[in-house]
Design a protein that fits this description.
Layout (H helix, E strand, L loop, with lengths): L5 E3 L8 H4 L7 H7 L11 E2 L5 E10 L5 H9 L5 E5 L11 H9 L4 E8 L2 H4 L6 E6 L10 E3 L3 E3 L2 E3 L4 E5 L2 E5 L4 H23 L6 H9 L7
Parallel strand pairs: 1-7, 3-4, 4-5, 5-6
Antiparallel strand pairs: 2-6, 3-7, 3-10, 8-9, 10-11
Helix pairs in contact: 2-6
Length: 225
Amino acid sequence: MSNAGFRIKRSINRPERSLFEGFRDIPVSNIGDSVNRCFCLDAEIRPMNDKPLLGPAFTVKVAPGDNLMLHKAIDMAQPGDIIVVDAHGETSRAITGELMIHWAITRGVAGFVIDGSIRDVARLKTFGIPVYAAGISPAGPYKEGPGEINFPIVCGGVVVHPGDILVGDADGVIVIRPEDAPSTLKRAQAKLADELRVMKLIEEGAWDRAWVDEVLKAKGCEFID
């Protein structure tokens, strides 16, 4: 009998590194534009240091203000995994901090994305692991459960499945389904190349801006002298 809400799945399908390595040097904004401006996490989930994020999702759902299942997730995660936590956006209590994240580093965890709060931020800024969170609080968590590990979750308003690809930079985090990765990468690379082309035009003073007035007129904007 399934114990929905308090269960752990031991194995997940992780994408091959070759499937997502190409996203490493592409801005998250370019990737987001390439998927119709969808799948970016809420702006509340922001970087806590300047380390870029890339890797497969290892998903965790915790009770608000509780980190029992997060402790177990760190023990289970494999090197290269990104631990993604659905903490219901509850920010009154930190569900992780310096000790847990230091333990995760020793296990090869490649990053954290937490829809909740963290603490010990001054120390985390010196760590070599990317950490994204929705808030900061000195208040500690409970350790009662329930929760789930390696089932689909919602983090920052986006559904995340175990094994999804996460990319994060100073702007935020985006989620990519593995089956969408090849086509998304091609579009994102083309988008980046186009932005570099436009940047060159701007520097040369040759960026054609006529389209702005054309769109305004097409939408019925009134021009008054």
